[in-house]
Amino acid sequence: MKAWVCRRFAAPFDIAIEDMPVPEPGPGEVRIRVHAAGLSFGETMVLEGRYQKTPPLPYIPSSEMAGVVDACGPSVTRLVPGQRVAAFSVSLDGGGLAEYCVLPESFVHGIADDLAFADAAGFLMNHWTAFNALVRRGNLQAGEVLLVHGATGGTGSAALDVGRAIGATVIATGSDDAKLARVTADHRINHVTTPLRERILEITGGRGADVIFDPVGGDLFDQSMRAIATGGRLLVIGFTSGRPAMARTNVLLVKMISVIGVEGRLAIERMGEQGWNDFREMLAWAADGRLKPQAGTCFAFADARRGYAEILARKHAGKCVVLID
């Protein structure tokens, strides 16, 4: 099979298309003929050797994919060959950027016939992270104000979708006016050209945002501490800015702010049955139309390297997805 393979972790990242053996499913595993694979910022960090965990080499990236079940190992009970599915891996070495991949059955979920593979591939991990952050960890309620940083990226756009489904007033921030114009939100703020705190206070009548979804960190985290409402919840999703921020505990104290870390993969891994119950609830929201997964930027299989480069350069809009014929 054809696969994008990394044989050393270094910056700039080094991946190439190679011929690799087609993997065989073991007990409880299914093999997927991949038609679309999602790319993530976390994978760029793995490729450059900057991630906190290092998968074994050779490394086939992409932990999110959609396609058709090709074969089932012993003891698989829920899925059958020929079934349309979307899948994700709780680690970053899911092997999705290939013609075939093998995953445990529990990571693979059937999808509707009318859901495009490109949309499905970018849905599970981003929406799960947003759902876990806003529903389980942040307890976002209808009528509250949700501020989403990095709203033009994959995880941020998923947070907008979940926030709208809950019934919150949604504010999107970004640094590119053209990309911001394409997102669906009640308010849009270019945080480079607009003073963030002043605009948030103007929108909220001086109260601030109830919940802040922050995958960016750095200076935006610092500004968020000044734009959050008393008793607000600041959800730390990541630090794509490259600088993990430090919270001033005196501000946490006097404003009674909760700063909450959210890691979607670890939530599934460590929350046990509660995590899977939440995950199934998210799938139900998608099935009944409350969530509307959509691919952002699509690339041909031969252009996957460019997809990762655009993620690093912040040139993409929404989730980056590679289409595999």
Automatic annotation (TrEMBL):
It comes from the Bacteria. GO terms for molecular function: oxidoreductase activity. Residues 10-322 form the Enoyl reductase (ER) domain. InterPro entries: ADH-like_C, ADH-like_N, ER, GroES-like_sf, NAD(P)-bd_dom_sf, Zn-ADH-like_protein. It holds the Pfam family ADH_zinc_N. This is NADPH:quinone oxidoreductase family protein. It comes from Sphingobium psychrophilum.
